[in-house]
Amino acid sequence: MPTTDRHDLRHHGDAEVRDDGAALVDLAVNVRADTPPRWLREHIAASLTGLAAYPDGRAARAAVAARHGLPVERVLLTAGAAEAFVLLARALTARRPVVVHPQFTEPEAALRDAGHRVERVLLRAEDGFRLDPAAVPEDADLVVIGNPTNPTSVLHPAAALAALARPGRTLVVDEAFMDAVPGEREALAGRTDVPGLVVLRSLTKTWGLAGLRIGYVLAAPETVTELERAQPLWPVSTPALAAAEACVSPRALAEAAHAAYRIAVDRAHLVAGLREFAPDGLRVAEPAEGPFVLVRVERAAAVRRHLRDLGFAVRRGDTFPGLDEEWLRLAVRDRPTVNAFLQALDRAMVLASR
Asked: Which residue numbers delimit the Aminotransferase class I/classII large domain (predicted)?
């Protein structure tokens, strides 16, 4: 499918709050609210005494490897998952790269910037944005898909994703939001039996570290070596390395697991409230399994504008291939925030209909 179209692949949720975010309740950015926690801030701050030395990622890399039960040769630390997409695009040779949409747009943007001609597989709303492995071209040698997928909040079965693996194919699964799924069910991180598998993880979403930039890649040692060659020297800062080590500690994993269950409860409350707007033409993409919810609503641009006037920022959906201007993405927040948002949504939809 041609990739020259109207979608702005470089538009992200932070654009919704960049100029006057302090005056808005943020449902546009998929970072867990009230993070980073105090203990993590203090741990990162303590690392500042070591800034005179060059970063040494060995301890953090070993900690990530142990967290997933892998040898360190299968781990690469990156400046956020976004850097990993750039490394993949630059380091790997791909004759027929395919990106499964709707999903996070940076993988395709990075591939395009590296000179690749990208094909798209568009999942359909009528099918619940579920993956049909047969829809991916058999000769695709690089396939990228998110799980759970941003922005649809679909959690694809691990078996369906593993079915995409082929000899000679690199299968990239973006699991940036997997730690927000209770039990991380359907995760492929830690699997070594899927040929060509590359799993990306982010520590910025659950821990509120978007400004620090820390993530990692899990892949076969030879793939890690190729990606590492494409990195600049010392790509991950000392504070980011300290954060990585802390965020995979037993204490942090227990806190993240608790947060995942709390997000599930808050998401259920949000979805239940959104269903009340069905008679007014609002539709929720279900089942939602991530820390965000995708909705389709008539006159969505006007609704989003009125919500902004009422103090709430939400993410437009029309920059995602496979979606149009009637889609909005909503980050899951706590019950009081959701209740206030639902009241504002009611008012915004009335104003948009006039």
From this structure: 25-345
